[in-house]
Design goal:
The protein has two domains: about 1-100 and about 210-260, Rossmann fold (3-Layer(aba) Sandwich); about 100-205, Rossmann fold, CATH 3.40.50.12500. Helix content is about 40%, strand content about 15%. It is built from eight helices and eight strands; from the N terminus they run βαβαββαβαβαβαβαα. It has a four-stranded parallel sheet, with helices on both faces. A four-stranded parallel sheet has the order 6-5-7-8, with helices on both faces.
Length: about 270
């Protein structure tokens, strides 16, 4: 199995954290390909920054999937899942965001969960994300660092004690059954804090990798209709070569399978792994 893991921000240091945790989390035999956004911001805190990141992520997905899947699945490795769920319309392979993966993992392990974030500014966007997934009623709290960051790559080292205290407060004061350490800059920290927090601790990167492996292995088939079917054919202008080709490929595959369905033939099989 080959997974494309995309860092939607431009920080190479954060990409290194993502890659290290992805490699620790992946099953034997899973190949991990990690890419960094070609444009955008150092780290994503707001809805508008997420909007910028979504375009950068779409370009990378298109590059890898334009001429038939060269990867088996995609992991969008930023909390808040920039571009999701729209990216599911672009490709036949599963596209998993670390937010949806972390929320699913938390929901499987407890009733109420808390999210620990790297800044106060990021909290409204995270609240929106939880609501979008229909889990607002199970959110115990979002707690966050309320100090200026020295640098995005050193958040874990600079604020480990603060992040631990916030996690413990989420359990004792907010009633969290599960704690999610949110965001790629915190990748791997859950491994260090387990045992110091009295409930399960979820890392978004590891959850994203393991959930992607599981969904790919299900071989459930591509979206050809419904809410995540490929965008309909229409005039377009100014797109990159990769994005234009990926859209054409998605539309051609949908049209081909629609014709086969009308003829009573099965649609294209899911990729074999």
């Amino acid at each position: 199995m080959k997974l494309l893991v995309i860092n939607p921000n431009i920080s190479d240091d954060v990409t290194a954290l993502i890659e290290a945790e992805a490699l620790r989390s992946a099953s034997p035999g899973t190949e991990i390909v990690v890419r960094t956004a070609g444009y955008g911001v150092e780290y994503i805190e707001t809805r508008f920054e997420s909007l910028i990141a979504a375009g950068a992520v779409a370009e990378i997905v298109a590059e890898y999937t334009r001429d038939g899947a060269s990867v088996d699945g995609v992991v969008v490795a930023a909390f808040g899942d920039p571009g999701m769920p729209a990216l599911k319309e672009l490709t036949d392979v599963p596209v998993i965001g670390i937010t949806e993966a972390a929320l699913c993992a938390a929901a499987l392990q407890g009733h109420r969960f808390s999210i620990i974030a790297i800044s106060d500014r990021i909290r409204p966007w995270y609240q929106d994300c939880v609501e979008r997934f229909g889990l607002g009623g199970r959110l115990a709290s979002i707690r966050s660092i309320n100090e200026s960051l020295n640098g995005i790559a050193s958040v874990q080292q600079d604020f480990k004690a603060t992040l631990l205290a916030l996690s413990q407060q989420a359990v004792t004061e907010d009633g969290a059954d599960v704690v999610i350490l949110a965001g790629a800059p915190l990748a791997g920290l859950a491994r260090e804090l387990r045992g110091q927090i009295p409930v399960p601790v979820v890392d978004g990167i590891s959850a994203g990798i393991r959930m992607a492996e599981a969904v790919v292995s299900l071989q459930s088939g591509p979206h050809r209709a419904g809410a995540f079917g490929p965008p309909p054919l229409k005039a377009r202008r100014g797109l990159s070569e990769n994005l234009d080709a990926a859209l054409t490929a998605a539309q051609d595959a949908a049209a081909h399978d629609a014709a086969r369905s009308v003829a009573g033939q099965p649609i294209s099989p899911a990729p074999s792994n």
